[in-house]
Amino acid sequence: MMRVGQDGRAPGAAGLHLAGGVPLLHPDEQVFAAMLEGWRAQQLARNLAFATVGRRQAMVRAFAVHADAFPWRWEPRMLDEWLGELRAVKGLRRPTIRAYASSVSAFCRYATDPAYGWAEQCQARFGTHPVQVAHEWNTAVHVQESEADPRKRAFTLDELQAFFDHADAQVGRVRGGGRKGWLPVFRDAAALKVAYGFGLRRTETQMLDVADFAANPHAAEFGEFGVCQVRFGKALKGSPPKRRSVLTVWAWVPQALAQWVDEARPLMPSAGRSAALWPSERGPRIGSGALHKRFADYRDALGLDAGLDFHSLRRSYVTHLIEGGWDPLFVQQQAGHEHASTTALYTCVSSDFRTRTLRRALDVTAAAAMRPGRSR
């Protein structure tokens, strides 16, 4: 349902962003800018994230530059040529190209919707009006639930152990050499372990506060780190960040957290002024880009393949729980997935695990068949 303001006009209406009948010094540029601003208002009214809106606007601007035309002169062939170049020349991935096409399509729907009045404005000023240029015959349809890069995968247990051992070794190397900066290295090693230990996304890890941990009365052995309250989970479209509680499952995770919170974090210069679990040296909180860079540096130093990214820590968490025999519904709830099919996409079980599972099933079947007294 469209939201309407007190003056009876919808957010993004032409009349709110462009005064009708007023001569413009640069009409093409000014009308296009007003359309983009109106589209921004319309999307924000739908509770879309600022970052999402900004990316969509940038994609539409990129198409306008390639087409060398303003929206009221766009044609489907221009979109064909642009998307073809993105794939054939620039080598963009299919989901990225679909995102570009989707943004242009959404903008055209907005610009051609009679409720916003842009067609009338353009017709009066330029003698033509915007049309929809994205159609089923020149855009790809999203038919597959997951389009993740097939190279993306989980760590094996040996790879993960080597990765964490390398992270710990860097702390010892920097501190043992009498060099400054060992605290950020210690912090990042702990953050990487916590990301895996609770199956967190990068932003979820970055946005943790010290107060986001609590005791689990049903698992007193984990002390004050028995539950992790994730407050910045991946949001559904038009919704705020999704919250979830993740229970601690491995005893080494509280140990790593306690060592950081009790011993190392208080030494950070900004620790006293920040509630963040991972304060930066000069600011209240580390940036997610810094975590990504640290991860990539360690991965490359070990010669691991590029299919392992920060999100692989989350994939590994799901995979290793499933391989460890944890109930799939529990794993789904820990990961915060709405559907079991999503958890299945994260699960990258090894061939050894599948072989053991098959062997157990065959052995059980054979044993049942050989029981005395079984009718044949």
Computed over alpha carbons, the radius of gyration is: 27 Å
What pattern of helices and strands is seen along the backbone? HHHHHHHHHEEEHHHHHH
- Major sheet: arrangement of strands: 1-2-3
Largest sheet: 3 strands, antiparallel
Structural class: mainly alpha
Molecular structure report:
- The chain is 53% helix and 4% strand.
- It has 376 residues and is mostly helical.
- The protein has a 3-stranded antiparallel sheet with strand order 1-2-3.
- Strand 2 and strand 3 (242-247) form a beta hairpin.
- Helix 2 runs antiparallel to helix 3 (50-67) and helix 8 packs antiparallel against helix 10 (252-264).
- The longest helix is centred in the middle third of the chain and has 20 residues, at 157-176.
- The radius of gyration is 27 Å and the shape is globular.
